[in-house]
Specification:
175 residues; six-stranded antiparallel β-sheet; three-stranded antiparallel β-sheet; 3 helices; globular
Length: 175
């Protein structure tokens, strides 16, 4: 019960992010936008208030960790036109994804060969992936699919930035 209360509190914290305006990405460097200094980094596990929609739209990397705590992580993703996240399974991790821009198709199932749950997604779609479900999202639009993902517990090392799908795949197979 205590773990659920902590998780709900962390989820409320993540969904409450607001206020920073950002229109370009420059990993690890200060960027001046709209009169504000923005630093692209993994802000966890420190308190942070960020405009998640602007960060998500501005992200140009396949995967960028934005906040990594001890029990929860937020990553930003930019999937190129015709690209995909890649079929994956997180045995002990629940995942939430929110589409900010573009359109796609979600695939989920109990085995890699039986993805029986398929749904089209568009801006404002929320995707809930239970731990132990095989899943993939394919970009069906002619522009990058922009989304953010929340993992509980943490899935990627603090500070992870994968510029491309290929870079992400190489890192995943290296572990």
């Amino acid at each position: 019960m205590k773990a659920k209360v902590v998780l709900l509190g962390l989820m409320a914290f993540v969904f409450g992010w607001v206020a920073v305006s950002c229109t370009q990405r420059d990993a690890g460097k200060d960027v001046k936008t709209d009169g504000m200094d923005v630093v692209w980094k993994d802000y966890g596990a420190e308190p942070a208030v960020l405009d998640i929609e602007r960060y998500t739209i501005a992200n140009e990397s396949f995967r960028t960790t934005l906040w990594t705590g001890s029990q929860l992580q937020v990553t930003l993703m930019s999937i190129p036109a015709g690209g995909e996240i890649g079929l994956e399974l997180h045995p002990g991790t629940d995942q939430f994804l929110r589409i900010e821009d573009g359109t796609g198709k979600v695939f989920m199932g109990d085995s890699r060969d039986s993805l029986t749950y398929t749904v089209a997604v568009s801006p404002d779609s929320a995707v809930f992936v239970p731990a132990g479900k095989w899943h993939n999202i394919r970009n069906t639009s002619d522009k990058p699919l922009k989304l953010y993902s929340i993992y509980s517990p943490v899935e990627h090392p603090h500070g992870t930035v994968h510029k491309t799908f290929e870079e992400a795949e190489a890192a995943e197979h290296h572990h």
